[in-house]
Every structure is written in C-alpha cells, then in structure tokens.
From TrEMBL:
It comes from Streptomyces violascens. Pfam families: LUD_dom. This is LUD domain-containing protein. Residues 103-205 form the LUD domain. The lineage of its organism: Bacteria, Bacillati, Actinomycetota, Actinomycetes, Kitasatosporales. It comes from the Bacteria.
Length: 207
C-alpha cells in the first residue's frame, strides 16, 4: 500500500460516521436590477460613464457617427464586414476594410474604428463583442486608439452577467469591454490607452 492509499484510508475512516452533506441550493438572483427597460438602460448609461466611456443616445446612428468622426478629426475609419452601411453614410473619412492581412502597425495607423456589439450589460457597464457581423476580429477593437461601439436598444441590453451568459455562445471569441483601456501604478496614477483604445464612445441606438 502506498503512502497515498494509507492517507486516503485514514480519511475515509475518520469521516465514515459523518452526516451526509446538505443539498446545495442555487436559487441565486440572476439580476439585482428592476425588470424595467428604462431603469436598465439608465443603469447601463451610468456605469459606462463611470468607466469613462463617452455615452450618446440617439435614434439615428448615421448622423451622430458622422459628427463624432468629424469632431475627432478622423481621416480614416476601420469598417468591419457586416457593419450597417447607413451608420457611415455621411462620413467623409476614408473607409478601410478589416482584412486578415492587416498588420498591427496598419491598424494602429487608423484614426477610428466603428463596430456593433453582441450585448451590453447594465450592472457592470460592460460591452461584449463576439466577432459577429459588424464587429470584426478581436484586434480591431484593441489596436485603434478611438473606438465607436453601437448598442441596439433594447434588444442588445441585459441587466446582468448571468443574463448575458445565457445569450452568448462560449465557442465564439468573446471580448469584454468595460470602458477605455486603462491601468494604474502603485501610486494609482491612471494611464489610458496602454493595451486598447484610449477613447471609447458608446452609441445607444434606439428604434
């Protein structure tokens, strides 16, 4: 008998008369937010802003995105496959298609990127991309310094992470974004744009 077998035998003897473990209850709340679409959207807006994202509400994405690109002075914009054409219908920036051959240096030279998303989570102020239509590959949301992300309201808004997990496919490449890229050193000096966009603008698109 090995040392491992002797130890396990002693453990079994010690717990032989122990009562059976109680059943584990898993009646956890799936959300701490009232089941009210207006309240959920307001909470999403609040938490996005708390993470220093710039939040806009609109019922027409195209004119707003055109305005945001112009205000940024963007001469080029990265466009993932499947992005609704009307979102960039008035933009004058040079449109650059997302291709597998694009290098990190080429992506870094782009002024802005516009994407959709898979979901937005109100309680955490998080946007989730899954590389679906209009979202592109993961790196296009990580390399360019300015990211405009459109969230369709209310279809793409959920209150909590458990609600999001039930709607996301874990086999897809999920990118979870909570505000612009940032880090802090031991003295809590915040530096933005270290490993992702320095500026995140979120468009909450109703209708």
């Amino acid at each position: 008998m090995s040392s491992r077998d002797r130890i396990l035998a002693r453990v079994r003897t010690a717990v032989a008369d122990a009562p059976a473990a109680p059943a584990i209850t898993r009646d956890y709340l799936t959300s701490h937010t009232p089941d009210d679409p207006v309240a959920v959207l307001d909470l999403l807006h609040e938490n996005l802003a708390d993470y220093r994202a710039v939040v806009h509400r609109t019922d027409a994405a195209g004119p707003l995105i055109t305005e945001l690109l112009a205000a940024r002075g963007s001469g080029s914009v990265l466009v993932p496959d499947g992005l609704p054409r009307e979102w960039l219908s008035g933009a004058t920036a040079v449109r650059i298609d997302d291709t597998p051959d694009s290098t990190a240096a080429e992506l870094d030279a782009v002024d802005s990127v516009v994407t959709g998303c898979a979901l937005a989570i109100a309680e955490t102020g998080t946007i989730v991309l899954d590389a679906g239509p209009g979202q592109g590959r993961r790196r296009i949301s990580l390399v360019p310094d300015h990211h405009i992300c459109v969230v369709r309201v209310p279809d793409q808004v959920v209150a909590s992470v458990p609600q999001a997990m039930s709607r996301l496919d874990p086999r897809r490449p999920l990118t979870w974004i909570s505000g612009p890229s940032a880090t802090s050193d031991i003295e809590l000096d915040r530096v933005e744009g270290v490993h992702g966009p320095r500026t995140l603008e979120v468009v909450l698109l109703s209708g």
